[in-house]
Amino acid sequence: MIDGETTGNERLTAATGVLLLAPLAVIGLTLLHLRGLLSVHLFVGMLLIPPVLLKMASTGYRFVRYYIHDPSYRRKGPPAAIMRSIAPIVVISTVVVLASGVALLVIGPSSRHTLLPIHKVSFIVWVLFTALHVLGHLPDLPRALSSKREIETVHNGHANGAAEWRGSLADRSGWMIALSGALVGGVVLAIIFVPEFGPWLHDQHRLLTGGR
Fold it and tell me: Based on the number of CB atoms within 10 Å of its own CB, is 36 exposed (0-12), middle (13-18) or buried (19 or more)?
């Protein structure tokens, strides 16, 4: 039998992870020519915050429900041991890289010498361990996002198969709304912070023109 809550949580986590791949790739590309793509780096960096927080919330929810011995999450079981071992590093580095990035943006170029090294080091750690995290979960993505399991519930011989199928569709609507909300929230947040880009862009222009 499909457990609607654990399935919905799994799909929300997987879908959020997929959503994050494109903006993270853009962030990586901006690093190849940061001087010319600084505004893109800043905008996409701010856009990432709500989806990343949603991903952390969905994985954290599973963690809490499992360790308080919720029956459905205990039946599902914990993630693989290696995934559990790197999870704290992923979470801590994520928080540090996002928080230091926001602090750099708000405080301005005067924080370059104190906060920028923290941002750079935490980003490197975050990229390395997040890459391991993504590779570890990549084989499960097609199954997590597939609708095959809902279809099977109608034909699995259970008297409540149709009810389970309807419940799964409701779960899908819920995580799609959450995902859309995070994406829209990210765009709104990035737009709100656009005025804060000015000092950094001006400082970048000053460096490029030799202080003129």
Answer: exposed
